[in-house]
Design brief:
This protein is of the alpha+beta class. The protein folds into two domains: about 5-125, Beta Polymerase, domain 2; about 130-335, no CATH class. About 50% of the residues lie in helices and about 15% in strands. The strands form two sheets. It has a five-stranded mixed sheet. Strand 4 and strand 5 (about 95-100) form a beta hairpin. Helix 7 (about 195-210) packs antiparallel against helix 9.
């Protein structure tokens, strides 16, 4: 754990608590979004988030003037987009980046937070909205990150998995995605459709899973550097591969809902994943993927070091198996592809 990042993470929440009170005095709505908000929603934070991302329907300058009066040193960055405001807030040699996005009616609810032993009320989106937002950031080349920043990609995949572990992935996540696309298209003057966005998400996740390999977007060195954002422990190579293929499988299942909600298909897949120690199941997944054109070396590597990732990869390739009603699967399909049979 990086002590500087820990100080930044704590200072970000302190700033949010102050700005929330000031916004309340003005009758405005300030919403905590991004990685910092996600970690505050979890029972226990899984990583340190050092920036403060906010949605505000008022004048950011007024809030930041009040923060300056509290003893923070402020610097504002220039931007040509009137919907954004960027600041650095410094106190006790700790610098926190504060970003405001101007938007009305941002979906959120009030929750109780604790910082420095004191409780305060702040607004944050529901987990399903935050998961949909993370999917949006993974849409490289469309509505997502404009540059393939490795550490940002790792954070996005990690955060989605943290939320999925604690809250599950209800159908409302996928119902939120169109509004995320609409908002981002409006912000950047684009007109991407759902297929464009989902295609780019799938491409990003497929490449993210190829750590340290040709065509991949994450190096082993950057994954190692991610450890400084963790309160404890570290993320190993095959753990991240599992995370990336997990999100990819979920996206693929959500795109092919035939007679079943995506949430039901995801639950089906997860019931298989918990059986990752069963040689027959893992072997069937490996055989089906080999027939589908995947390399024997890659599949054998996953089978030995990341059997859960292998099952998630299977789920992404044969996502239709998790999107049909149980009685609608043909006997041929079950025999060739479905590891349940």
């Amino acid at each position: 754990m990086n002590k500087e990042f820990k100080a930044k993470s704590e200072q970000a929440v302190l700033i949010f608590s102050f700005l929330s009170r000031e916004a309340g005095k003005q009758g405005k709505k300030l919403v905590f979004i991004g990685g910092s908000a996600i970690q505050q929603l979890l029972t226990s934070p899984k990583r340190l988030s050092v920036d403060l991302d906010l949605v505000y329907d008022g004048a950011p300058g007024e809030l930041m003037n009040a923060l300056e009066a509290e003893g923070y040193k402020l610097t504002q960055s220039r931007t040509t987009n009137p919907l954004f405001s960027f600041y650095n807030a410094t106190r006790d040699d700790t610098v926190v980046k504060v970003q405001f996005m101007k938007e009305k009616n941002a979906p959120s609810r009030e929750r109780r937070f604790t910082v420095g032993g004191k409780a305060f009320a702040g607004r944050v989106p529901d987990p399903d909205y935050l998961m949909a937002s993370k999917l949006g950031t993974l849409a490289f080349g469309t509505i997502g990150r404009k540059k393939e920043k490795e550490i940002g990609l790792i954070k996005d995949v990690f955060d989605f998995n943290c939320l999925a572990d604690e809250f599950g992935v209800p159908d409302s996540v996928w119902a939120r995605v169109p509004s995320i696309i609409l908002t981002q298209n409006k912000l950047w003057g684009k007109s991407y459709g759902s297929d464009d966005v989902y295609d780019s998400i799938e491409k990003t996740l497929s490449r993210a899973a190829q750590i340290g390999k040709a065509g991949g977007v994450v190096s082993l060195g950057t994954l190692g550097n991610f450890d400084q954002f963790l309160p404890e422990g570290h993320v190993k190579k095959y753990e991240f591969v599992e995370m990336a293929y997990r999100v990819l499988a979920y996206v693929k299942i959500a795109r092919k809902p035939v007679g079943k909600s995506p949430a039901m298909g995801i639950k089906m897949l997860e019931k298989e994943v918990v059986r990752f120690r069963e040689p027959d199941l893992v072997g069937k997944c490996e055989s089906a993927l080999l027939e589908n054109g995947f390399s024997l070396d890659e599949l054998h590597e996953l089978k030995i070091f990341a059997p859960k990732a292998l099952i998630y990869l299977y789920g992404s390739v044969f996502s239709e198996e998790y999107s049909k009603n149980p009685g609608s699967v043909s006997s041929d399909t079950r025999r060739v592809h479905n590891p349940l049979h």
